[in-house]
């Protein structure tokens, strides 16, 4: 009976190995086809191996392999759930082990060398060190902090941020100007000398962020309620179009209004107002309010963002203001943050503008940070990364604010994980951003949920904090969280150190 069971099990193993060999062959063939399409445009030779692994990973993730995973686990073999940085190597190792379990001591299937098996992890760590600076000894993830206007005038404040643990300073070019930015950078460089810590400077180009530029209203308090309507125009001149009590303008990007269709959803102020395009007019569109974050109405304000998640329009990735800001940014930044990238053409345009200012050789050494915050950006992420890393050192920021508005909060939960996996497969460092420890930064008291969110940030190579009155305290708490998580986890891999709670009383 025992021999019969063993024979049945060996037959199952043989079938499982056949499935794995077929999977490996399909991944290899499809991956190579993708890589060969990318290869002619990859000028940065150090990215070739990473691009090939990304191509294999994409081929694998087009398939549902959950049945194979479950079949592997009872044999003590890798379930292929952590192969992002070593797709083919992991498959080869499992196939080699399976063959030996089947009794083939002289197996034709060989294990990959350990150095080869771990090369993706080493490459990612090196890329993170080169782009974001070396991680501190106490944690794997770096801390990025958005600088407020105060940083231009208060050098002691900047020094306190570095002393607390800031590794990357973010300057948001949507605010302030070259005079303030230059002062901020001067204070950072001075603080580096005093604190004896290096700090990278990331300058974030605003991109084509659609905002309410002007507001016309006949109301004392321009609040909207469910079923209310208001008018959006691309014109600068404002009036009571079609009897509307509230009219808003986004005249810097008027082509967006022309691209809207009846039924398209619209979100205002990070989703506080949800509406739908009800009527198309010559001068703009009438929007009907469908949902509100507050039952007692939401006030429409100038400078708040507009999102059109299902509208398909093509706008230039760089505004006139962005191009002007690039003159300064290219001279002073270690990393250029690229907002609202949607496709490889956006990347090529950004690279072209940097080339104009620095020349090809210097331009290709300047690191780019792609902010993924649109549906198109997510859909095209592999092609976008290849276009950028083909020439420049590359990192990716998961900009969860606009991304959540675009894709919805439920979809965001899985997308932020998928972006992490995709970037790991390409050896691209990731920044975990938006509302991290937001309560802590603003009030000095963190919420329970944001502590958990901050701990999730340890899966990324860097975690970003926004500005706030309690920035120093926020950095200190995040530093401690990331230090603790280093002992427990690397990416998807749990690190099983001895647990205090596992000790039995009396032992």
Automatic annotation (TrEMBL):
It catalyses: pyruvate + ATP = phosphoenolpyruvate + ADP + H(+). SUPFAM superfamilies: Phosphoenolpyruvate/pyruvate domain, PK beta-barrel domain-like. Residues 139-469 form the Pyruvate kinase barrel domain. It is an enzyme of class 2 (transferase). Keywords: ATP-binding, Glycolysis, Kinase, Magnesium, Metal-binding, Nucleotide-binding, Pyruvate, Transferase. It holds the Pfam family PK. Its EC number is 2.7.1.40. Coiled coil: none annotated. Its cofactor is K(+). GO terms for molecular function: ATP binding; kinase activity; magnesium ion binding; potassium ion binding; pyruvate kinase activity. Pathway: Carbohydrate degradation; glycolysis; pyruvate from D-glyceraldehyde 3-phosphate: step 5/5. Belongs to the pyruvate kinase family. This is Pyruvate kinase. The lineage of its organism: Bacteria, Bacillati, Bacillota, Bacilli, Bacillales.
């Amino acid at each position: 009976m025992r021999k019969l069971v063993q024979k049945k099990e060996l037959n199952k193993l043989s079938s499982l190995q056949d499935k794995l060999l077929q999977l490996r062959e399909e991944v290899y063939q499809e991956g190579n086809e993708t890589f060969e399409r990318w290869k002619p445009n990859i000028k940065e030779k150090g990215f070739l191996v990473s691009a090939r692994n990304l191509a294999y990973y994409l081929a694998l993730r087009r398939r549902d392999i959950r049945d194979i995973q479950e079949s592997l686990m009872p044999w003590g073999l890798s379930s292929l759930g952590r192969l992002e940085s070593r797709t083919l190597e992991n498959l080869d190792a499992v196939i080699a082990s399976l063959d030996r379990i089947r009794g083939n001591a002289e197996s034709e299937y060989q294990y990959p060398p350990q150095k080869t098996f771990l090369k993706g992890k080493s490459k990612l760590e090196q890329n993170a060190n080169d782009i974001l600076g070396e991680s501190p000894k106490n944690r794997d993830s770096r801390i990025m902090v958005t600088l407020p206007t105060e940083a231009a005038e208060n050098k002691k404040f900047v020094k306190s941020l570095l002393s607390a643990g800031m590794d990357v300073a973010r300057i948001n070019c949507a605010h302030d100007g070259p005079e303030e930015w230059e002062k901020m950078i001067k204070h950072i460089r001075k603080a580096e000398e005093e604190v004896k810590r290096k700090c990278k400077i990331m300058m974030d180009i605003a991109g084509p962020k659609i905002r309410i530029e002007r507001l016309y209203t006949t109301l004392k308090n321009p609040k909207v309620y469910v079923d209310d309507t208001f008018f959006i125009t691309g014109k600068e001149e404002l009036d009571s179009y079609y009897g509307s009590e509230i009219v808003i303008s986004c005249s810097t990007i008027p082509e967006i209004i022309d691209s809207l269709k009846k039924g398209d959803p619209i979100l205002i102020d990070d989703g506080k107002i949800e509406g739908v395009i009800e009527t198309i007019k010559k001068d703009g569109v009438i929007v009907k309010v469908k949902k509100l974050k507050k039952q007692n109405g939401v006030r429409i304000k100038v400078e708040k963002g507009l999102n059109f998640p299902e509208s398909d329009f093509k706008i230039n990735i760089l505004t006139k203001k962005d191009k002007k800001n690039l003159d300064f940014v290219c001279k002073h930044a270690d990393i250029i943050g690229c907002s609202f990238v949607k496709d490889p053409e956006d990347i090529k345009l950004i690279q072209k503008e940097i080339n104009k200012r620095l020349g090809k050789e210097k331009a290709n050494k300047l690191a780019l940070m792609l902010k993924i915050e649109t549906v198109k950006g997510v859909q095209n992420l592999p092609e976008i990364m290849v276009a950028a890393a083909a020439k420049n050192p590359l990192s990716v920021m998961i900009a969860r604010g606009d991304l959540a508005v675009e894709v919805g909060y439920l979809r965001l939960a899985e997308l932020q994980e998928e972006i992490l996996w995709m970037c790991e497969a390409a050896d691209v460092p990731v920044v975990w951003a938006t509302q991290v420890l937001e309560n802590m930064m603003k009030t000095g008291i963190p919420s329970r949920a944001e502590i958990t969110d901050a701990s999730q940030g340890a899966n990324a190579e860097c975690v970003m904090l926004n500005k706030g009155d309690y920035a120093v305290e926020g950095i200190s708490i995040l530093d401690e969280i990331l230090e603790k998580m280093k002992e427990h986890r690397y990416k998807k891999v749990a690190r099983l150190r001895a647990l205090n709670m596992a000790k039995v009383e009396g032992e």
